[in-house]
Specification:
mainly alpha, Arc Repressor Mutant, subunit A, 8 helices, about 65% helix, Tscrpt_reg_PadR_N
């Protein structure tokens, strides 16, 4: 990782470090977290680490300077003890912060489409030896994320709209299963153990 930092700098290398995440995600999550209820800085850090299973671990040196900037910008409000005990300050979202969060959410939806396209480049970078483990892990993680997404937002959308989305998802799963069955069938018929061309 030292070489990546020397070439790209901290910002470009951070995403592939164990505690890293895309730039701007921490601010987005802080505003999102505070939109539900006020929280201490350390509560936000603990929540991120727990929900990511330790894959993302921003430290105090990341969260408190960010909270200070958000406070200066009028996006969050701090209350509590002053001094070096920053963990004793409770942060809440302001009306300006709520409006900014709504704007970020709109941009986040567009960014999701961009990441899907970038994923095609990621495919080229994967070592063939890592593919079997990645298939199993990716399918499980993606299903779990989809289930959490649907169940957490189930009551926020009209029943008809959610049902249509689930029917489309089911159709997509059916097509994927048909592709897997066809691929396994061709592998079983192939006499070449070293691999074969996909069509």
């Amino acid at each position: 990782m030292r070489m990546e930092k020397e070439v790209y700098g901290d910002s470009e290398a951070s995403f592939i470090e164990p505690q890293g995440a895309p730039r701007g995600l921490l601010m987005y999550y802080v505003l999102h977290k505070l939109s539900s209820k006020p929280a201490y800085g350390y509560e936000i850090l603990r929540d991120i680490e727990n929900k990511s299973g330790g894959a993302w671990r921003p430290g105090p040196s990341s969260i408190y300077p960010l909270l200070k900037k958000l406070e200066s910008a009028g996006l969050v409000r701090a209350s509590g003890e002053e001094g070096d005990a920053t963990s004793h300050k409770v942060y809440s979202l302001t009306d300006k912060g709520a409006a900014h969060l709504a704007n970020i959410r709109r941009k986040f939806a567009t960014a999701g489409q961009k990441w899907e396209s970038i994923g095609r480049i990621f495919v080229e970078l994967v070592d063939p030896a890592d593919v079997p483990a990645m298939i199993s892990r990716a399918s499980t993680v993606r299903f779990d994320l989809t289930r959490q997404l649907v169940e957490s937002k189930l009551g926020a959308l009209p029943k008809r709209e959610m049902r249509y989305a689930l029917e489309q998802y089911r159709l997509g799963l059916k097509r994927q299963l048909e592709w897997v069955d066809e691929l396994i069938s061709r592998m079983d018929k192939s006499s070449f153990e070293g691999g074969f061309k996909s069509v």
